[in-house]
UniProtKB/TrEMBL annotation:
It comes from Microbacterium gilvum. The keyword Cell cycle does not apply. Keywords: Glycosyltransferase, Transferase. Pfam families: Glycos_transf_2. This is Glycosyltransferase family 2 protein.
Length: 330
């Protein structure tokens, strides 16, 4: 299997160099492409010094996660690669990470393979716990990382998942040939769930393996931008659902999502993030025409029922919402 590993860099050269060093120890043959999203001159200088061991594409501006990885996917399509691995620059894969993902694609007849992301943190209570073991989607319209916060020893066995984390997964190039690339309207956050949702609707299998382990420092890039995560979440969640929720699930998902989204907005206002959240909602409204056009294209080619894959409960991390629902039930 001919594999291209795509790593994005945006003014995070120390993390990127660590990531590249970890990739150099992989047991699975592969090529590496670093896409620099408009970083400063020191990052560019240090990346150029590594050319030869990897390929480099310098973008004049920050294309976001979606736009950046699309640069690599287009290259893989053009040059006839079989698969593209996406790896966050703040993730350190263990030596057998890529080999385990490639074996999963082959052995499980899967189209997308994802592994176990374990947290890197200075907080001893967090370090070594699970970041995600594949991503899920609730009937409340909310994506969530499976088993987040649990001990690494509690990681589940291999099996199908709703979606794969774009931070450390392997995709057959034929998937992108069929469903299209990452949606650059998302810029960052939930764009990987969008790809997984579209792939699922098109009938592709997504499989998780605990043998593909990478160690991830959450928010190393987005944490440098105040309010970024809040803004992107409120912008992208409505787009994800407008595009992808099939007609037969709209009556199940949308009323629940409307309630949850309203409560999330109220919490953002109460905790001082209201400006970022409201701007995110406004940007979502501006992007709705794009989402509706994409919906027509996606829903016209649906071949698979995703309902059995949805969690029939609130996402595990929605503790406040769960307490509120108990009050209503009383």
């Amino acid at each position: 299997m001919r594999i291209l590993v795509v790593v994005l860099n945006w003014n995070g050269i120390a993390d990127t160099e660590e990531c590249l060093d970890a990739l150099s120890r992989q047991t699975q043959p592969h090529d590496v492409l670093v896409v620099d999203n408009g970083s400063g001159p020191d990052d560019v200088r240090r990346l150029r010094a590594r050319e030869g061991a990897m390929r480099l594409r310098l973008e004049p501006e920050n294309l976001g996660f979606a736009g950046g990885v699309n640069v690599g996917i287009r290259l893989a399509q053009h040059e006839g690669y079989d698969a593209v691995a996406l790896l966050n620059n703040d993730a350190l894969p263990e030596p057998g990470w890529l080999a385990a993902l490639a074996a999963t694609l082959e052995d499980e007849d899967a189209s997308i393979a994802t592994g176990l992301l374990v947290r890197r943190s200075d907080d001893a209570a967090v370090a070594g716990t699970i970041d995600t073991a594949g991503d899920g989607l609730s009937v409340w319209g909310m994506p969530y990382p499976q088993h987040r916060g649990e001990p690494r020893e509690a990681a589940p066995t291999a099996g199908e998942v709703f979606s794969a984390s774009g931070g450390a997964s392997l995709y057959r190039v034929e998937v992108f040939d069929a469903i299209g690339l990452f949606d650059e309207m998302f810029f960052a956050y939930f764009e990987d769930i969008d790809v997984g949702f579209r792939a699922r609707l098109a009938g592709y299998r997504i499989v998780y393996t605990p043998d593909a382990v990478a160690h991830h420092r959450i928010g190393a890039t987005s944490g440098r931008i105040p309010g970024f995560t809040v803004h992107q979440s409120f912008q992208n969640l409505p787009l994800l659902l407008v595009k992808n929720v099939p007609a037969g699930l709209r009556r199940v998902v949308w009323p629940r999502f409307a309630l949850l989204f309203t409560l999330m907005l109220g919490k953002a206002v109460a905790t001082g993030s209201g400006v970022h959240a409201i701007r995110g909602v406004a940007d979502a409204v501006r992007r709705l025409p794009h989402a509706v056009r994409e919906r027509r294209r996606i829903q016209a080619t649906v071949v698979a029922d995703v309902a059995p894959l949805l969690l029939r409960d609130l996402p595990p991390e929605q503790h406040g919402m769960r307490r509120l629902l108990r009050v209503f039930r009383r």
